[in-house]
């Protein structure tokens, strides 16, 4: 008899998409007030502080084996240091928020190509059709609102490295991840990410930070909205479902990121882009829905 999914898991995709999509514009605003590695160091440091306090209060169990510690650390480095670090470097090297979101939308395609060999999942024609439709809609959204020339080559290189980080982090979590208390998992993951960030911070130097209310709000959003809630939901959804289907949800991020950028950064949102938004949403629905009778 199939089990009823908890309410938080039903709402998780919508909450994750909103928080994650807005993060592109919010991060770009934050980089107006602090260099990328400095912003990331502040973000990770605050998350670690919050997790450490919660750990002392809740006393959750620690991983039982060295392998569990290692896997949590690897996922933390791939998603925190590699993905976020190179995303921020892409921003400061000329990549627009919409362009970066489009590059990150390639993640489900790459995951779907690797998943059968990596985690044993089978990708059906319906998933492939939904992925292609969602990618097409995403491309329409981004292309419709591009009114400037291509970003510098270095920016694209950093974006490609960020894509590699989020792809490998998702696949590693799916294959090797086990259930751990969220506080424990976050504390270890962000701790490993912060440690691996230090050499880059030392090389770049701790730049000046313009402390004002906009930057404080940005930092609060990145710490609580992105680093704690969104990442936690992403990893929980990966554990609860097939990695390729979960990753397909990220196809909605580029059009929603464009919408947030239109509101927050006054970036253009032409009528054709709304058509792409509908196409991307339809593709995600096709790729992620289950037939009646399919086991959960």
Characterize the structure shown.
This protein is an all-alpha fold and 296 residues long. It has one domain (7-124, 149-239). Helices cover 76% and strands 0% of the residues. The protein has twelve helices and no strands. It starts with 6 loop residues before the first helix and ends in an 8-residue tail after the last helix. The model is unreliable at 292-296 (pLDDT under 50). Keywords: Membrane, Transmembrane, Transmembrane helix. InterPro entries: AA-Vitamin_Transporters, EamA_dom, EmrE-like. Residues 14-142, 169-288 form the EamA domain. It is a multi-pass membrane protein. Belongs to the EamA transporter family.
Number of domains: 1
N-end to C-end Cα span:
10 Å
- What are the secondary-structure elements, in order, as H or E? HHHHHHHHHHHH
Radius of gyration: 19 Å
SS summary, helix count: 12
Overall residue-averaged pLDDT value: 81
Globular, elongated, flat, extended or rod-shaped: what is the shape?
A: globular
- Largest sheet descriptor: none
* Count of distinct strands: 0
Low-confidence runs = 292-296
Strand content: under 5%
Indicate the structural class: mainly alpha
Specify the helix fraction band. over 70%
């Amino acid at each position: 008899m199939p089990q009823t999914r908890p309410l938080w898991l039903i709402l998780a995709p919508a909450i994750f998409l909103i928080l994650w999509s807005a993060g592109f514009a919010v991060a770009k605003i934050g980089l107006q007030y602090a260099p990328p590695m400095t912003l990331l160091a502040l973000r990770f440091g605050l998350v670690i502080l919050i997790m450490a306090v919660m750990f002392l209060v809740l006393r959750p169990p620690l991983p039982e084996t060295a392998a569990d510690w290692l896997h949590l650390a690897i996922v933390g480095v791939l998603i925190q240091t590699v993905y976020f670090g190179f995303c921020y470097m892409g921003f400061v090297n000329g990549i627009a928020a919409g362009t970066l979101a489009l590059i990150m939308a390639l993640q489900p395609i790459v995951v779907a190509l690797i998943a059968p060999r990596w985690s044993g999942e089978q990708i059906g024609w319906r998933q492939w059709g939904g992925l292609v439709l969602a990618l097409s809609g995403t491309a329409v959204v981004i292309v419709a609102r591009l009114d400037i020339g291509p970003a510098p080559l270095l920016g694209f290189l950093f974006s490609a490295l960020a894509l590699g980080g989020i792809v490998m982090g998702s696949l590693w979590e799916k294959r090797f991840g086990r259930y751990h208390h969220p506080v424990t998992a976050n504390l270890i993951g962000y701790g490993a990410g912060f440690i691996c960030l230090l050499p880059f911070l030392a090389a770049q130097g701790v730049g000046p930070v313009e402390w004002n209310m906009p930057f404080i709000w940005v930092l609060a959003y990145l710490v609580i909205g992105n680093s704690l809630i969104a990442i936690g939901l992403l990893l929980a959804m990966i554990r609860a479902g097939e990695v390729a289907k979960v990753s397909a949800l990220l196809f909605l991020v580029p059009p929603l990121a464009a919408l947030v950028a239109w509101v927050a950064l006054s970036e253009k949102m032409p009528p054709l882009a709304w058509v792409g938004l509908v196409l991307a949403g339809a593709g995600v629905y096709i790729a992620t829905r289950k037939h009646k009778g399919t086991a959960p």
